[in-house]
Design goal:
The structure holds 2 protein chains of 2 kinds.
Chain A: H1 10-23, E1 27-28, H2 43-46, E2 55-64, E3 80-89, H3 95-105, E4 115-119, E5 122-124, E6 129-138, E7 141-152, E8 155-156, E9 162-167, H4 168-176, E10 185-187, E11 190-191, H5 192-210, H6 213-232, H7 236-255, H8 261-283
Parallel strand pairs in A: 1-2
Antiparallel strand pairs in A: 2-3, 3-9, 4-6, 5-6, 6-7, 7-8, 7-9, 10-11
Chain B: E1 2-11, H1 16-35, E2 43-49, E3 52-61, E4 63-64, E5 67-75, H2 88-96, E6 105-107, E7 110-117, E8 120-121, H3 126-136, E9 156-163, E10 166-167, E11 171-172, E12 175-176, E13 180-181, E14 191-192, H4 196-205, H5 212-229, E15 232-234, H6 241-244, E16 252-257, H7 260-263, H8 267-275, E17 281-285, E18 290-298, H9 305-333, H10 335-340, E19 346-348, E20 352-353, H11 354-372, H12 376-388, H13 396-400, H14 407-415, H15 420-428, H16 443-462, H17 476-490, H18 496-509, H19 518-539, H20 544-551, H21 558-570, H22 575-593, H23 608-626, H24 630-650, H25 658-675
Helix pairs in contact in B: 1-3, 8-9, 11-12, 11-16, 11-18, 12-15, 12-16, 14-15, 15-16, 16-17, 16-18, 16-19, 17-19, 18-19, 19-21, 20-21, 22-24, 22-25, 23-24, 23-25
Classes of the chains: A alpha+beta, B alpha+beta.
């Protein structure tokens, strides 16, 4: 379906979205430095959506989900993939129109497609967070999650932020007309496979076969304790990094099949408790 | 002047379930708000699209007329005390109507308050109408947006409150009422509405069909003609159109093709892939097979058809590729391997894994089969089906398409060479999946479906969860209603406390993390299931007092309780029931209040009527208790009534001698006990 105006490479898609949202007043803060399962978990979203200060940001985020690895053999399931994340607080009245203009900026003119906002509410129990919104359909394909955050870290958001999360591989596959993300042009003459296939294979093998289970269990315990120490020292932002490290250690243990059903519930409960404590400390309010 | 009033809330895309609420409630809400303000309309019509909720009220006056009402208060005598000062009663009455006591008048010996409400313009009520509409809509889930505190289903971005061609002042969270409305995004993003009468027509021109019924009609006509072009008919087993009408403002229908390669997939898989999530309509040819095509309802411009069609075809092809991949993977594993993995899947964190649940289902199926005297193949197939019942939840296919649970297990059981009775029972365990839906047609299926529901009901209640109001996250009402329906269909005897005890014991045996002990669980589950019987009885026209009377019989078998209620209802006008009812009522009035002797002592009898009644109870009581047919039991009970009447007519029950008196009360209680199996007739409203 590609037209002359469409983003022709994966990097062009990212650059255009960054340019668009920068022009809309968003700070382009860049990916976070530790593993996150989704762009939402970058503190630029999940911490900054709390509190009264206005905040607008956009960034690309490599999302790490060890259990989704398929050794680079699946056309669109990856343990490392990219989201493009936008967060604006308070949510502007014309945000849907802005979003549609962002699609035009990457070569998707609304008039030439069937674009629909279909109810899809978001919930992340480990983050004590939920919101209402839609999945956005482009000619029947889900390409974006659009969410008004109602609660994060167990705290009611006020004002309300709006989050827009683009699935970059899917959008790029659509724009480039390819059926496998590995065939995407990343840059002229360079494919997605050139950039990521080897890493995807090795990381899949590491996550499923090699990662040191007792070491990960110790890492979880260590980061959990460290989170508590940070909070005691009045440092909620470093404390939040420890939450992310716990969450990633849990995901790796899960990929190793090392977590029984009952342990799983307990681990999720521990991460949730940390996330709640950090969110409250970040806002300087008592944990109820 | 009397004109039409329009209130339009322009929203970001509303969820379909919110649209349905608005469709039902918006008109009546506005009608009542207007009527309460002396502005009653002649009619109201509701309009709902994905991006608006609107009501047009016809014949609304521009002014609520002045009104004088006279209220009657305390008697004149009570208005002043002896000293001539106003009493509290008079002062309170006056205050209630915004008057001073001096402004009250006396009419026919009563204090009266005459209150005149001045004429008020409609415009003064505009804000209250908007606020009342927003508050009046009971949306399934509300949200906040921006910096506001208002809660609604989705953000409100435009507001029209218009009478004739006049905009009335109102505001919703920073949005002032005006003439602006939003048309179809592509055709006419926004424009000004000149008058209420132009609103629907102008929106029609802007690509918005404002009436849901009209959109549905257009969609169905387009589906019909598109299907014809494929020599086929369209179908919608999952009723996706109920949602699709709220996903489009300007419905058009496109067809897309399915590759022959994918057409080899099982039909249920194909249909599910089309309907779930994508909301496409499958096409069926004259020979009964699916056509290699689908229909989809779009909201786009005709110029985009080629792109939109290609995009949708790609999405479906991707989903079908997933299905092919899942099926291949599942076939390589087989259902036995899946069953072995159930220990790794949680059913509920407090109720164990699916392997735990499977063990309970197998035991419950045996208990149910034994109770019903079911042996041989039916019993063996039910137990084997229970063993494999949840295996498909470990399949890749059900991971992709949750709707295919049961169906998938059936196919994989067949592929593994399991007896047909086993395979079918695996599918039937989920039946009925709603009121009036198909029931299991095989005995193994019925046993498994019952076991599944008992385990779920008892487990969820025992961990301290129960439905409240409209909240029933574990669908327990549906589970209980399913038990009642299956029992009725198969004429089974169910001893609810016993079955609850068995299901509870199985959970305890697995060390499940329960909140409630057996007794507490029974106290909730047994009446909960009987309530479903009463609900069905009510739907069939059996009044509540008859349901209560039947409950008084104390039966803990749903079918028996229903039979007793129906017998009582059928006998409503029969003279025997009237006589029995009278006899029971007489006994009960005295027996309730008086002390009774522990046991009847014939030596204390002083009158022959006592002996007669005592002998009648001994002779007739056991016959009532033994009679299985409740209608016949009622007729037998009627035979006991004359002896009761004889006692009351010939004997002063409340004798002075306390021993004689307590003995007679004992006799009445024995009579009541004899009547008890037909129900608690004192509950009947006569």
């Amino acid at each position: 379906m590609s037209t002359d105006l469409a983003a022709k490479t994966f990097q062009d898609l990212i650059l255009r979205l960054q340019a668009f949202w920068a022009a809309e007043g968003c700070a382009i803060v860049q990916p976070y430095h530790t593993e996150v399962g989704a762009g939402t978990m970058n503190p630029a979203t999940i911490l900054r959506c709390l509190g009264p200060e206005p905040w607008s940001t956009a960034y690309v985020e490599p999302s790490i989900r060890p259990t989704d690895g398929r050794y680079a053999e699946n056309p669109y399931r990856l343990q490392h993939y990219y989201q493009f994340q936008v967060l604006i607080k308070p949510s502007p009245a014309d945000i849907q129109e802005s979003y549609l203009r962002s699609l035009a900026a990457i070569g998707i003119e609304a008039a030439a497609h069937d674009i629909r906002f279909v109810e899809d509410n978001w919930e992340a129990p480990t983050l004590g967070a939920w919101g209402t919104g839609w999945e956005v359909w482009l000619d029947g394909m889900e390409v974006t999650q659009f969410t008004y955050f109602q609660q994060a870290g167990g705290i009611d958001c006020d004002p309300i932020s709006v989050e827009i999360t683009y699935g970059l591989e899917r959008l790029a596959m659509y724009l480039q007309g390819v059926d496998s993300c590995w065939d995407l042009q990343w840059a002229p003459g360079i494919t997605y496979a050139d950039v990521h296939a080897r890493g995807e294979r090795e990381w899949s093998a590491y996550n499923f076969e090699v990662a040191d289970v007792p070491g990960l269990v110790r890492a979880f315990d260590h980061h959990e304790a460290e989170c508590g120490r940070c909070l005691e020292a009045g440092l909620p932002v470093p404390a939040y990094d420890q939450v992310l490290k716990c969450s990633h250690a849990f995901n790796q243990l899960d990929a190793r099949g090392a977590i029984s059903v009952t342990e799983r519930v307990a681990y999720i409960g521990r991460v949730r408790a940390l996330a709640r404590a950090v969110s409250h400390a970040y806002l300087g309010i008592e944990l109820s | 002047m009397t004109q039409s009033l329009l209130i339009e809330l322009g929203c970001e895309e509303l969820p379909a379930n919110a649209c349905r609420v608005a469709e039902r409630e918006a008109g009546p809400t506005i009608e009542k708000l207007l009527a309460d303000r002396r502005l009653a309309p002649t009619s109201v019509e509701t309009f709902v699209t994905p991006r608006r909720i609107a009501v047009i009220a016809e014949g609304v006056p521009s002014e609520a007329p002045a009104e004088t009402l006279t209220h009657t208060g305390p008697p004149e005598k009570a208005a002043k005390d002896d000293a001539g000062t106003w009493t509290k009663a008079a002062e309170g009455f006056a205050r209630k109507h915004g008057l001073t006591p001096e402004q009250l008048e006396v009419r026919d010996g009563l204090m009266t308050a005459t209150v005149t409400s001045p004429a008020e313009p409609l415009a003064a009520h505009a804000q209250a109408l908007v606020d009342g509409l927003i508050e009046g809509l009971q949306m399934p889930k509300n949200m906040r947006w921006g910096t506001g505190t208002l809660r609604f289903s989705r953000p409100i971005r435009t507001l029209i409150v218009m009478h004739g061609d006049t905009v009335l002042p109102a505001e919703v969270q920073g949005v002032q009422s005006g003439r602006i409305t939003r048309g179809h995004r592509l055709l006419r993003p926004e424009f000004e509405v000149t008058s209420v009468d132009d609103w629907a027509v102008d929106l029609g021109g802007a690509g918005v069909g404002v009436r849901t019924a009209d959109r549905r009609e257009v969609i169905e006509a387009l589906l019909l003609s598109s299907a014809k072009a494929h020599d086929a008919t369209w179908e919608d087993p999952a009723n996706v159109l109920n949602e699709v009408v709220y996903l489009v403002e300007w419905p058009r229908v496109l067809d897309g093709s399915i590759s022959e390669r994918h057409l080899a997939l099982p039909e249920r898989v194909l249909i599910t892939a089309m309907q779930s999530h994508q909301r496409y309509l499958p096409l069926r040819g004259a020979t009964g097979t699916l056509r290699p095509a689908f229909l989809t309802v779009v909201n786009s411009h005709p110029d985009a058809d080629a792109t939109v069609r290609a995009g949708n075809e790609r999405v479906l092809a991707g989903r079908l590729d997933d299905a092919v991949f899942s099926l291949e993977k599942d076939r390589a594993r087989g259902i036995e391997a899946m069953a072995e993995e159930l220990g790794r899947i949680t059913f509920h964190q407090r109720l164990g894994t699916l392997a735990d649940r499977t063990a309970r289902l197998m035991a419950l199926v045996e208990i149910l089969a034994d109770a019903a005297g079911i042996a041989g193949d039916d019993r063996a197939h039910a137990v084997e089906a229970a063993r494999l019942a949840k295996a498909d939840l470990a399949s890749t296919l059900v991971g992709e398409f949750a709707e295919l649970q049961g169906e998938t297990g059936m196919e994989y059981a067949r592929a593994a060479g399991k007896p047909e009775g086993v395979a079918v029972a695996i599918r039937e365990q989920y039946q009925p999946d709603g009121a009036g839906r198909p029931l299991p047609e095989t005995v193994p299926g019925a046993l498994l479906a019952l076991a599944d529901r008992f385990d779920q009901l008892v487990g969820v209640v025992a961990i301290g969860e129960r439905p409240t109001g409209s909240r029933d996250p574990y669908a327990l009402r549906r589970a209980a209603a399913g038990i009642v329906e299956i029992q009725a269909r198969y004429g089974l005897t169910l001893d609810l406390p016993h079955l609850v005890a068995q299901a509870h014991a199985l959970l305890v045996g697995q060390s499940a993390d329960l909140e409630l002990d057996l007794e507490a669980t029974q106290e909730i589950v047994v009446p909960f299931i009987l309530d479903r019987v009463d609900q069905a009885l009510g739907d069939a026209g059996v009044p509540v007092d008859v349901q209560r009377a039947a409950r008084g019989a104390g039966s803990v078998d749903p079918a028996r309780h229903a039979a007793i209620a129906r017998a009582l209802h059928a006998a409503a006008d029969a003279p025997e029931l009237a006589a029995t009812h009278a006899a029971v009522t007489r006994c009960s009035r005295i027996a309730e209040k008086e002390q009774a002797a522990d046991a009847l002592d014939a030596a204390l009898f002083q009158e022959s009527a006592e002996t007669t009644l005592s002998e009648a109870i001994a002779a007739i009581g056991p016959r009532i208790a033994a009679e299985q047919d409740p209608a016949a039991a009622l007729r037998i009970a009627a035979e006991l009534a004359p002896a009761v009447d004889g006692l009351f007519d010939g004997v002063m029950v409340l004798a002075d001698d306390p021993h004689v008196r307590a003995n007679r009360v004992r006799l009445l209680r024995d009579a009541l006990a004899a009547f008890a199996p037909v129900g608690d007739l004192t509950q009947l409203q006569r």
